[in-house]
Amino acid sequence: MSTLADLHREILGCCACELAKHRTRVVPGEGDENARIVLIGEAPGLHEDRQGRPFVGAAGKFLEELLASIGLKRNRVYICNVLKCRPPGNRDPMPEEIVSCRKWLDSQLEIIKPKIVVTLGRHSMARFFPGVTISKVHGRERQENGVIYFPMYHPAAALHQQSLRRTIEMDMQRIRTLLDMTEDITAVPKTGEEPKQLSMF
User: Fold this and answer.
1) In the chain, what are the domains?
2) Model confidence band, residue 145 (pLDDT cutoffs 50, 70, 90)
3) What is the Cα–Cα distance from 172 to 177, expressed in whole angstroms?
4) Residue 6 and which of 26, 43, 84, 197 are 20 to 30 A apart at CA?
């Protein structure tokens, strides 16, 4: 039994906030425990709450298309949300709910140790990019303690505002470049060469 699977079992029994009273199923997350990329959404929706899996609705289909556009399959990344239970009526996460769920997300990242963390939407962005707006920082990575953090609009945003679709698609292409750069960085440089440095905003 993997450490991540053990963690998921703990999450399934969580009753740390009021969301436990309203959920159908807990949605811990899914994907490769050795993934180089972790994608973090905001909270489960109706379909996720029913199936216990993240990003299985229309936004999930678009996310899979985005991943395919840079040569990635869903099972090669790890996908989760800031909240592990659906807020009633798909409302925004409440601050106290985010605090209650924080330990689960922290543990997931500690176990997986990704090279790139992609935030999908403003609530997951705020976890790593406090005090900024998504319109200002989307598509602009920063690096901290060897991890690249990359903010994007939530895939659902393109379903409600078609003008954002191209923006999201272009930001996803940047992730392909970042993946290639992390390969260069983790490789042993030739004698006399310096490893490539990543940009920061």
Assistant:
1) 3-184 (3.40.470.10)
2) very high
3) 9
4) 43
